[in-house]
Design a protein that fits this description.
This protein has helices at about 1-20, 40-55, 60-70, 75-85, 85-105, 125-145, 155-165, 165-170, 210-215; strands at about 115, 120, 180-185, 195, 205-210. By secondary structure, the protein is mainly alpha-helical. The strands form 2 sheets. A 3-stranded mixed sheet has the order 4-3-5.
């Protein structure tokens, strides 16, 4: 868990370096997510880091928060905060919240179960999902700023979620999961080849890890990648 938490901290820091120097007006820049500015992206991460901390430390309070969200609140609470406070205060809140989440996550058994908005997941998968969210929303911020991010081998965490949740992606949309395996072969930023699935599978996905991660997090259309 420590190694995974270290990677999550590194992902936080990469995004922090993008937003920390921004003047207040740039926090209002539109991002590719329709209707969301940069401040909304950071507010969203702050909100769900907060509910993630509740899920780890106070499950009843988390369930109450989740039930209220699922029931349909008048407004999206994940962006309300960022629209109500100045950017400097939002940045401080995000930093404090994510630090508290990481501190709580470091003490977990990797196989312990954690409640979330879908089915419960292992603590390791839970923290990996927070890393994926940070990376994906960070891509929205980078796109808004026209900034190029250097891909790292932390993308393996994002790619693994993209592969391992394939069946869930069909089920959540009410479709049967196709039979057979899918082989995934990705070229990692560090030069390695990452693989999942049966080497003899008929269906194969090959390409760069970055492109795969951009597609599975819905940040790029597959036709806009290699």
């Amino acid at each position: 868990m420590d190694e995974l938490c270290d990677d999550l901290v590194a992902e936080h820091d990469d995004l922090d370096r993008l937003v920390a120097p921004l003047p207040p007006q740039d926090w209002c820049r539109d991002t590719p997510a329709a209707g969301w500015a940069i401040r909304d992206q950071i507010s969203h991460l702050t909100y769900f880091d907060g509910t993630a901390l509740l899920a780890l430390t106070d499950p009843p309070a988390f369930r109450a928060s989740r039930d209220a969200l699922v029931a349909g609140l008048p407004a999206d609470p994940s962006v309300e905060l960022g629209r109500a406070v100045p950017p400097t205060e939002l940045l401080d809140l995000w930093r404090a919240g994510r630090a508290a989440l990481v501190a709580a996550a470091r003490s977990l058994d990797a196989k312990s179960r954690v409640e979330w908005y879908g089915p419960p997941m292992s603590a390791r998968s839970f923290v990996t999902a927070r890393l994926m969210e940070t990376w994906a929303h960070g891509q929205d911020v980078a796109d808004a700023l026209g900034a190029a991010r250097i891909p790292t081998d932390r993308l393996r965490h994002v790619a693994h979620i993209g592969v391992s949740t394939r069946g869930w992606s069909y089920a959540v949309h009410g479709h049967p999961v196709p039979g057979g395996d899918v082989r995934v072969e990705l070229d990692a930023p560090g030069g390695d080849r990452w693989t999942w699935g049966d080497p003899a599978a008929i269906d194969v996905v090959r390409g760069s890890a970055l492109d795969f991660c951009l597609v599975v997090t819905q940040r790029r259309h597959v036709h806009d990648t290699a």
